[in-house]
Amino acid sequence: MKKFVNPHPVVADPGQLGTAKTNRENMHNTTMAVDSILNSPLKQSHLADLSPKEKATNYFADTICEFSEFLTPEELHQCLVDAMESHYRYTKKEFDHATQLRDLIGGAF
Predict the structure, then answer these.
(1) Residues 52 and 60 sit within 8 Å (Cβ to Cβ)
(2) How far is it, in rounded angstroms, from Cα 68 to Cα 28?
C-alpha cells in the first residue's frame, strides 16, 4: 500500500495553522530566482565554448526560427535592414558625439 502513497510533503496542510500562508509567501519569493535558460549550467557551458561569431550566428538562427512561422522572407529581410539602420544611427550618433568632444578638447590628440 505504501507504494501508492505520495512520498512528497503536503504543500498546505489544513490541519496546521499558517502552513498555507507560509507556502503562498514562499511561492512569490523571488530572491533566489534565476533565468532558467541563460543561467543554466548547460547553456553557460555551451556559450562559453563559442566564439563571438558563432554566438552571433546562433542568435541570428534563433531569431529566424522564432519568426519564420509568422513572417515572410521579405518581412524577415526588412527586419534585418531596419535593425541595421537602427544600429547605424545609434553608432553614428555616438561617433558624432565623440568627434565633437575631441574637437572641443582641441589638440590633445
Answers:
(1) no
(2) 36
- pLDDT tens digits, the chain, 109 residues: what are they? 455 555 555 555 666 666 666 666 666 666 666 555 555 555 555 667 888 899 889 999 999 999 989 999 999 999 999 999 999 999 999 999 999 999 999 865 5
For Cα atoms 9, 12, 15, give the angle at the middle one, nearest 5 degrees. 100
d(CA 96, CA 98): 5
User: Rounded to two decimals, what is the model's pTM?
Assistant: 0.48
Cβ neighbours of residue 23 closer than 8 Å, sequence gap 6 or more: 11, 12
Size of the chain in residues: 109
- Which distant-in-sequence residues (6+ apart) come within 8 Å of 14 by Cβ? 20
CA distance 74 to 77: 5
CA-CA distances (angstroms) from residue 2 to 5, 7, 11? 5, 9, 19
